[in-house]
Q: What sequence folds into this?
């Protein structure tokens, strides 16, 4: 039935996010595109995450439930198990919209030489799932990430599995911006293609996301990755991390006075 439809592997890394993971699972299972391999990698959650997962276990192709060495390690376990032609991950507090994979596969069929396929517009959602912002994320090429703006849209992005293997998967020593590092590696081997128009995924903003809690460590991690991949210390991308670091430091100083 799926002879002409490339298999797409989706990985969900999970740890103690039982309040959100059902929405994530449902968003994958409700895709209009059907040739999907779903892999869920849980790092030994102690909340009700596995109770939720077990309700859907007969519809999830592969469940790994064991301790890991962090998010990058968990995603890499999924990458190594994946058998799809394309692969991507959706975190256990984010969601894909029903036509996400269908749109990505159509883009892939039109441009099979690509290294990254993603949605150029992203919804930000809150704890209840309501849309609180719509964010355009234009990324023309690798150089723009290094020199202009490092921000990307990981939610709803997919990559040729062969290239993920070729670049050595995620760097497990990177705990905050492993997605940026992966994109910069992948884009050495092909261009980036975007689904324009309506968002194909939602990024949840809440108090315990890495984006919310990482602070200056997150920014330092981004700066380190940019410089490692050849960005100038004076590029807009690197200077942006320094500006936000200064602002965060000043804010913290005022709060502690």
A:
């Amino acid at each position: 039935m799926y002879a002409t439809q490339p298999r797409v592997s989706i990985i969900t890394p999970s740890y103690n996010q039982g309040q959100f993971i059902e929405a994530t699972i449902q968003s994958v299972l409700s895709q209009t595109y059907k040739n999907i391999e779903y892999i869920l990698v849980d790092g030994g959650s102690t909340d009700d995450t596995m109770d939720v997962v077990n309700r859907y276990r007969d519809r999830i192709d592969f469940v790994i439930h064991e301790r890991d060495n962090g998010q990058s390690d968990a995603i890499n376990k999924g990458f190594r198990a994946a058998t799809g032609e394309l692969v991507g991950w959706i975190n256990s507090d984010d969601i894909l919209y029903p036509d996400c994979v269908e749109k990505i596969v159509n883009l892939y069929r039109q441009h099979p030489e690509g290294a990254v396929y993603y949605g150029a517009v992203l919804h930000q959602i809150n704890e209840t799932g309501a849309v609180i912002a719509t964010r355009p994320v234009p990324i023309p090429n690798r150089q723009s990430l290094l020199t202009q703006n490092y921000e990307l849209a990981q939610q709803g992005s997919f990559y040729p599995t062969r290239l993920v293997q070729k670049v050595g998967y995620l760097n497990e020593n990177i705990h905050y911006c492993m997605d940026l590092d992966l994109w910069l590696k992948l884009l050495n081997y092909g261009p980036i293609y975007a689904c324009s128009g309506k968002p194909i995924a939602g990024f949840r903003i809440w108090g315990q996301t890495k984006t919310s809690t990482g602070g200056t460590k997150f920014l330092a991690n981004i700066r380190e990755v940019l410089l490692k991949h050849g960005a100038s210390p004076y590029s807009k991308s690197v200077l942006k991390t320094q500006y936000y670091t200064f602002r965060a430091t000043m804010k913290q100083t005022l709060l502690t006075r």
Summary: The radius of gyration is 18 Å. DSSP finds ten helices and eleven strands in the chain. Residues 30 and 98 are 6 Å apart (CA to CA).
